[in-house]
Known about the structure:
Elements: E1 2-4, E2 7-9, H1 11-21, H2 30-43, H3 59-71, H4 77-83, H5 94-112, E3 128-129, H6 139-148, E4 153-154
Parallel strand pairs: 3-4
Antiparallel strand pairs: 1-2
Protein name: DUF4817 domain-containing protein
InterPro entries: RNaseH_sf
Organism: Aromia moschata
Amino acid sequence: xxGYGDRARTQCEVVRLFRETHPDxxxxxxxxxxxxxxxxxxxxxxxxxxxxxxxxxxxxxxLNLLLALEENPITPARQLxxxxxxxxxxxxxxxxxxxxxxxxxxxxLCHLFPNPLHPNLTDERLWFQQxxxxxxxxxxxxxxxxxxxxxxxxxxxxx
Length: 159
């Protein structure tokens, strides 16, 4: 159920009401309504995102996060994910994700899980896992993971 107008309505009712209200527009289907509803539940609004991406977080918030990290540079891995988000000025792609792995994540992992024989690598008992987002399986990322975590990473392996 989603709210539409003056009360909560089913998706079928929303589709019917849209057709009645906007007969000159192409009809909506329930899949479209489901996507709009999911976006609303996740984001709290249904406005379209402008084609030029705007910063999701303002500069003051970024500065506060960085200052907090400066105060406590040795942060447990779970807190790292919670307290230190990474901001990209543009859409994440394979090259940007690789730089994130090389310059942000690996130094932290090498510090938290040191390898006495190879200081630039993590402990050989550590496994790395990522989901199937397109930047995660760019060829340069897969080659890097194969080199840094040989046989010890989980995720899509084909391009």
